[in-house]
Design brief:
By secondary structure, this protein is α/β, with parallel strands linked by helices. The chain has helices at 5-8, 22-32, 36-49, 54-58, 61-75, 84-88, 90-99, 129-144, 156-165, 191-200, 218-232, 259-267, 294-300, 316-324, 339-344, 348-362, 380-388, 393-399, 406-420, and strands at residues 108-112, 171-174, 205-207, 237-240, 272-276, 305-309, 332-335, 367-368. It contains 19 helices and eight strands. Bound molecules: zinc ion.
Length: 440
């Protein structure tokens, strides 16, 4: 299965009206999925009750709430905790939103990116055709999310505007990309350029090292790792087991290629090692997107944490089985970037199974929030959607999934990441304990 946002949301219409509100971003995705036509009818009813045009209504918190309420009504399952009052009265929706805002949640976005470098990506000059598949995908996604220039808007500057200022995100974790064979011999996102994010917002960002590709040579890989730690003071790694060398990829449990990296990471004091798993898009080979190599490495390096980014979706059950059948494990983590965003609006049942499987098998202490922004533009609609998302009772009963309680949401949103990245000093705000305003 190839992830392509336009395949996933067949009815998606790109707006030409400039940047969308975060709510409109979310609502557009609801309307673009297979339930879109039905959702539209429901939304129109609420827009009429609010005495607003559909166009204006969609940009409000009520429009977004109306889309979620429509999903509950169409499916007959309670995926979203949302009320009719919220869906037809923008003032009520706003009140609820403000009451739930900043201060109530400590949100660590474990998965963010800048996606532009100074040299840019010029086909045939510094980017191969294969390299362009990936750039084009990110570019299309960004444009659909209200970034008029796609990847060119996924800059250091906009990282701050969209993620740190424009959303309720407290701390954002980010990483560079490698694949230099496809990008003119220079990493797709070089660490020296993305380090500017850390320099600009030192207290609100965590920088991971990346682009380590052992198929480029073991000595070089280990030297780069050391340089990342000494020069850039990285807080962990996020790697890709697909690569752009002739070998196309490698595995975390390769004792010759990979174990020296983990041994060195351990010596250098790095604890958190992430990897893109699942979502086998662009030039990425699907076989390296499975998480089976985490099995041995988790046992052999029990003092390191291994994090499957994207939760290995759509192979998340394979990931979950690595803990479901080996409950003794304490170092296997997952992160929901893009997987949540791609499923919550158009395939809510799949989203509930995804979160349910992870929470049941890996456990609520091992699932972390992430949005893959700025690829998805401003992450706020994802935050709002997760605040309201529920695992319906039928699935709780039929699959033994835990209910998505406020306590579990606080763990996923921030306290799990805060624990492993030692973000306590930044976590001045306790997780949600204050009673919520409930619409009447
Ligand atoms: Zn990503």
């Amino acid at each position: 299965m190839e992830f392509n946002v336009f395949e996933h949301f067949k009815g998606y219409k790109r707006t030409t009206n400039g940047p969308l509100t975060p709510e409109e971003q979310g609502t557009s995705l609801f309307l673009a999925g297979h339930m879109g036509p039905e959702i539209r009818e429901h939304v129109d009813v609420h827009a009429a009750k609010a005495r607003m045009s559909r166009r204006n209504f969609l940009g409000t918190a009520s429009g977004f709430a109306a889309a979620m309420l429509a999903v509950n009504e169409i499916t007959g399952m309670k995926f979203f905790e949302v009320t009719a009052a919220e869906a037809m009265d923008p003032a009520a929706a706003k009140e609820i939103k403000v009451a739930r805002k900043a201060g109530l949640d400590f949100i660590v976005d474990a998965h963010t990116h800048i996606c532009w470098r100074r040299d840019g990506y010029i086909p045939g000059v510094n980017t191969t055709e294969r390299g362009m598949w990936f750039v084009q995908l990110l570019d299309d996604l960004g444009k659909a999310m209200g970034l008029p220039n796609g990847t060119k808007d996924m800059t250091v500057e906009n990282f701050g505007k969209l993620i740190l200022e424009g959303s309720d995100t407290s701390v954002a974790i980010f990483n560079p990309f490698g694949f230099r064979e496809d990008y003119g011999g220079k990493d797709m996102i070089p660490i020296e350029e993305q380090a500017e994010v850390k320099q600009r917002w030192p207290d609100r960002t965590v920088m991971l090292g990346g682009g380590l590709t052992p198929n480029q040579g073991r000595g070089e890989t280990l030297d780069r790792l050391q340089m990342f730690v000494e020069k850039y003071k990285i807080s962990g790694l996020k790697l890709y087991t697909f690569d752009s060398t002739a070998k196309r990829g490698w595995w975390f449990d390769d004792q010759k290629l990979a174990y020296p990296i983990w041994e060195k990471a351990r010596k250098l004091g790095l604890k958190n090692i992430g990897c893109h798993k699942g979502i086998p898009f662009g030039q990425f080979m699907a076989r390296y997107a499975h998480a089976e190599d985490f099995d041995a490495v988790c046992d052999d390096f029990p003092d390191l944490n291994f994090i499957a980014y994207h939760s290995a979706w759509p192979y998340h059950s394979e990931l979950a089985a690595l803990k479901g059948f080996k409950p003794q494990r304490k170092n296997l983590y997952s992160e929901v970037g893009s997987s949540f965003a791609a499923t919550v609006t158009s395939r809510p049942l799949e989203c509930a199974h995804l979160l349910g499987t992870l929470l049941r098998d890996l456990g609520p202490d091992y699932v972390m929030w992430g949005t893959d922004s700025a690829l998805w533009g401003n992450p706020q609609w994802q935050i709002e959607a997760f605040r309201k998302f529920q695992i319906p009772d039928q699935l709780v009963e039929g699959h033994g999934y835990p209910k998505l309680t406020d306590e579990i949401k606080a763990k996923v949103f921030g306290s799990n990441a805060a624990r492993i990245w030692n973000l306590k000093s930044m976590a001045s705000v306790p997780p949600a304990e204050t009673p919520r305003v409930v619409a009447v």
